[in-house]
Amino acid sequence: MRVIRDFKQQDRNIRGNIMTATIPATSLQLRSLVKRSGELELSLAKVPTPEPGDDEVLVRIEATPINPSDLGLLIGPANVGAAKLSGSGDDVVLTAPVPQGAMKALATRLDESMPVGNEAAGVVVKAGASAKHLLGKTVGIYGGAMYGQDRAGEGGDCFVFAADVTPAEGASCFVNPLTALGMTETMRREGHKALVHTAAASNLGQMLNRICLKDGIGLVNIVRSAEQEAILRRAGAVHVCNMSLPSFRDDLINALVKTGATIAFDAIGGGTLAGDILQSMEEAINKTATTYNRYGSSVHKQVYIYGRLDLRPTTFTRDFGSAWGIGGWLLTPFLQKIGYADGVKLRERVAREIKTTFASHYTRTISLREVLQPDVIAGYNKRATGEKYLIDPSKG
Questions:
Q1: Mapped to the 3 state alphabet, what secondary structure does 292-327 carry?
Q2: pLDDT digits 0-9 by tens, 259-284
Q3: Residue 326: which of 375, 268, 365 has the closest Cα?
Q4: Got the DSSP string for 154-206?
Q5: Prediction pTM value
Q6: Per-residue pLDDT tens for 130-165?
């Protein structure tokens, strides 16, 4: 017990030193720039340390994850296999060619140096008059520009964690947890009783599985390998369908019959999977139908595509009844739709369960400088299921 008390006292001393130390006038921030010449440039910029407003806090960032949504802004379509480094230390710059065919889609960001990073966690080192109660607390924040040493944000928007939560444990507090909760909320609000999720062994997928087990929601998990299936089975998942097996389609239909799932969230995007899911839903519904309908089932079946792990076009054969939909789903529009008060409730749940339901695991922790190293980029840019990288801006 003394060891625990000593550790907690040491932690309080460290945080006290952070709050009383002089806050530097500038801090490092990772920037992504796409030039009109067709070149991506990643660099570390020295920017003025933010001064928090009356309702704001200044957070010293200690952990920020690399999500697929971050990679779209950080790297986009650039050919990082042909990247080159110049400079050294904090002045290092990485350049990589951008295919000419991709430049049109990037027109609105050309020649604009952009900060990156959707979410982070750290310690509040300075606070405005209305947010003094957050000084010294570990909090999660979101809203962009998180790949840096310091970030100001609204105190009321912070995820306020318990004293035993570390920044690394709280870093993935926004994108994956609220996306997973958003899926179950969308399911309820649109009148469905169970759901399907693809790429289900990812950090997000594992969170969704824990939510559904805790809340008693039927979930059909679709994975791409035996290894991914094993991850979910060990976590207690009831219905796991492996796309690599010859029995995949039959397994999916049987799981849909058992759960009654009529809504799916697809991270794959390309290929035929979205259509295959709708077809399987239709077959599952027809297995228990008592009357024949020449137009197919009138039960609404919905697939939301929220990711693009497969870059091929999305293709489907329309043979899944008369009531169906394929559309896009993103977290920010969902939060705007449900309103601020309901969003607060979701954030409070995440903060309470950040070490359990919403726990994240990372393959590697890297520094801001290492984000720019080609061999490191090759690792985090794979977007491999279960291989998530964490940035510690204080490292190195």
A1: CCCCCCCCCEEEEECCCCEEEEECCCCCCCCCEEEE
A2: 999 999 999 999 999 999 999 999 99
A3: 268
A4: EGGGSEEPPTT--HHHHSSSSHHHHHHHHHHHHHHHTT-SEEEEESTTSHHHH
A5: 0.86
A6: 999 999 999 999 999 999 999 999 999 999 999 999
